[in-house]
Amino acid sequence: MYDVACAGAVYLDLTFAGLDRVPRPGEEHWAHELLLSPGGIANTAVGLSRLGLKTAIVSPLGRDMAGRYLRALLENEGISCEGSSVARSALTAVMPVDGDRAMVSFEPRDAALAEPLGRIQARAIVRLLDQITAVPAHTPTYAVTSHAQVHAAVHGRPPAALPRVHAVIANEQEAIALSGAADAHSAARELSQTVGTAVVTLGARGAVAASAGCFEQVSAPRVEVRDATGAGDLFAAAYVWADIRGLPLRQRLHMATLYAALSLRTLTAFAGAVRLAELEAYARESA
């Protein structure tokens, strides 16, 4: 029995660090460092594992060099790779610049296939929203989103499976697109009428959430941002961890926002995902 099973596309992120700006057409710039790390739903799985939860990732992994590298990294983190084997891996080139980043991704069709979860025993499931077609009746499912998925859908018309999920976690733009609301606060309240809990991340402004008539908002700690890639994935990991521990909504938001903020201090979410003892130490300091 796993504590959490994560399902969604897994990427190999290639981070080109130290650029002063993103190259224009016809230009070649030199990075100071090249870092290889897991991306996509794998960031959430890594965060969950480092927070002490027994974690499986149920996603296609490539038989190519990138896929073998990803599998080794994940298994070294104590994560069980339960997905199918496919020919090629999804990759993302990440270029952090001035506290933000530019990205270019490649996703083979079979690398993004939704894996069945019926054979996986887990206390909770984290899955991409567009892959949720059937939600196990007695397993809390956390729906996470991506900008591309949400804006490919009809604005203000959430997927049919949304009412059956335990919580949805989206950033501000995604939540507004899903709900058709005018702002993040309204989006959280609107989505909470459909789903158990609606969580909306606001970047440097923190996060808001609505659940059963309760509304909470927390601010984000101030940190020096080196790389924001994957911070939302780690927010989701810490939120799920805190929910499994039975923490109240405001405390869940606080721990998730803190965990995401701590990851911003270093390059790649893989390097920035701290372990439980460090998260708890920072939480005590910020109390």
What keywords describe this structure?
single chain; about 290 residues; alpha/beta; UDP-N-acetylmuramoyl-L-alanine:D-glutamate ligase; nine-stranded mixed β-sheet; four-stranded mixed β-sheet; globular
Task: Tell me about this structure.
With 287 residues, this protein is an alpha/beta fold. The protein has a single domain (2-286), classed as 3-Layer(aba) Sandwich (UDP-N-acetylmuramoyl-L-alanine:D-glutamate ligase). The protein is built from 9 helices and 15 strands. It has helices at residues 41-50, 65-76, 147-152, 172-179, 184-192, 231-244, 249-263, 269-272, 276-286; strands at residues 2-7, 10-17, 33-40, 55-57, 61-62, 80-81, 85-86, 90-97, 100-106, 122-128, 141-144, 167-171, 197-201, 207-211, 214-218. The strands form 3 sheets. The protein has a 9-stranded mixed beta sheet, sandwiched between helices. The protein has a 4-stranded mixed beta sheet with strand order 3-2-8-9. The protein has a two-stranded parallel ribbon with strand order 5-7. A hairpin with a 5-residue loop joins strand 13 (197-201) and strand 14. Helix 6 packs antiparallel against helix 7. The radius of gyration is 18 Å and the shape is globular. The two termini are 34 Å apart.
